[in-house]
Amino acid sequence: MAGHEHSHDDHAHDQRHSPSHSHGSGGHAHGSGGHSHGSGGHSHGSGGHGGHSHGVAADADRRWLLSALALIVVFMAGEVVVGFAAQSLALISDAAHMLTDAASIVLALIAMRLAARPARGGYTYGLKRAEILSAQANGVTLLVLSAWLGYEAVTRLFEPPQVTGSLVLITALIGIVVNLAATWCMSKANRSSLNVEGAFQHVLTDLYAFIATAVAGAIVLTTGFARADAIASLIVVALMLKAGIALVRDSGRIFLEAAPAGIDPDAVADRMVTEPLVEEIHDLHIWEITSGQPALSAHILVTPGGDCHAVRRSLQRRLSDEYGITHSTLQVDHVGEDEAGALLQIATPPDSTAAPNGASAASSAAEHCADSHGPVHRAGPHEH
C-alpha cells in the first residue's frame, strides 16, 4: 500500500529476508511465521504498486457535488408542497426521485471522505468500498420507491383525482431548469466513481422525468385528461427501475469480486502466457477494489533457469499498458520448485517435491497445479 512499498528487484535484498533466496510475491507475501517473502522456495514476488497510489483527495469534487445538492434540496422541498396542493402524483414521484438523488450525493460525499483514509489495521485496502455500499443503498432505495410509486400510479389510472394542470406545468418547467443546472454541476465531478456516476445518472433521469411531467401538466391543462398525470408517473417509475437495477447490478459485481466489465480473465491469461519463458499461469483472479481500481493476482511458472524478475516486470507492464491494471500481485516460480508455500493456493496443496532429473516441465507443472483454483493456462490450445 502507499507508504509501505517493497522492491524485490535486488537479489541481495531478497537474501536478507530469506535464506532460501526468496522472491516472494505481491509486494509482501505473508507466509506463516512472520513477514516472509515466499516460503521456503524460490518464489519471486511482485510489489505491483510501483507508482500506483490508492489515495483519493478528501475534498475531490466536493464543490460540484455540494452545488448540485443545494439545488436539488431547495427545489425538492418546494415541489413536495406544490405536489400535494395540486394533487399531482407525478410531482410527488419526481420529488421522491429527487430525494434519492440528494441521498446519493450525500453518500457520495461521505464515501469520498472514507475512501481518502489511509489503509491501516485490518482494512488493508482502506475504506474504498464505502462508495460501493452507498451506490448499492441508493439502488435499493430506488427499487423500493419505484414499487410504491408504481402501485399508486396504477391505482390512479382507475380512479384519477382532480389535478391542477397549471401548477404541475409551471413546477415541472422550473424543475427542468433546476435539473439542467444540477446535471451540469454533476458532469464536472469525477464520474469514474460508481456512486458519483450513479448520482449523475439520477439527476439526468430526473431531467427526463420533469419533461414527461411538463407534458402531462400541459395535457391536463388543455384537455382535462387527468390520467396523463398517472401515465407520467409510470414513466418516472420506469426510469427509476432502470437506474436502480443498474446500480444494484454494478455494485453487486464488485462485492462478488467479479472481473471488471470489459475484461475477460481467460483472454488476459492467454495473453500473459505468451510472454517468453512463461510455462503456465493459474490461480488467476481479477477483481475491482472499488470502481475504477482493477486488481489482479496470479501464480506464474517459468522455465527453469529463467529470470523471474524480468518476467514479472514485463507482465506488469503489459497488464498496465494493455488492460489498465496497475495493481497486480504476481507470484513467479520456476517449474518444479517446491510449492508447499504457494501464496495464492485456495485448496490445501498436496505434498510435492522438485521434479526429478529428466522430468519434463509440463509433467512437473501438471503435478504442481493439480488443485489450482480456476482454469490453468499454458501456451497453445487449452480448455478454460
How would you portray this structure in words?
The structure is a single chain. The chain has 384 residues and is of the alpha+beta class. It has two domains: 11-52 and 259-378, no CATH class; 62-255, Alpha-lytic protease prodomain-like (Up-down Bundle). It has ten helices and four strands, in the order ααααααααββαβαβ. Strand 2, helix 9 (308-323) and strand 3 form a beta-alpha-beta unit. Helix 2 packs antiparallel against helix 3 (89-115) and helix 3 packs antiparallel against helix 6 (194-223). The longest helix has 30 residues, at 194-223.
CATH 2nd-level architecture of the largest domain: Up-down Bundle
The best one-word shape is elongated
Uncertain spans, ≥5 residues at pLDDT below 50? 1-44, 46-58, 340-366
The CATH topology of the largest domain turns out to be: Alpha-lytic protease prodomain-like
Summarize the biggest pleated sheet: 4 strands, mixed
**Tally of helical segments:** 10
Biggest sheet strand order reads 3-2-1-4
Q: Total number of β-strand segments?
A: 4
- Write down the overall mean pLDDT: 74
CATH class of the largest domain: Mainly Alpha
* Helix-strand makeup class: alpha+beta
Order of helices and strands: HHHHHHHHEEHEHE
- Our Rg estimate from Cα atoms comes to 28 Å
End-to-end separation in angstroms reads: 32 Å
Annotated CATH homologous superfamily of the largest domain = Cation efflux protein transmembrane domain
Work out the count of structural domains.
Answer: 2
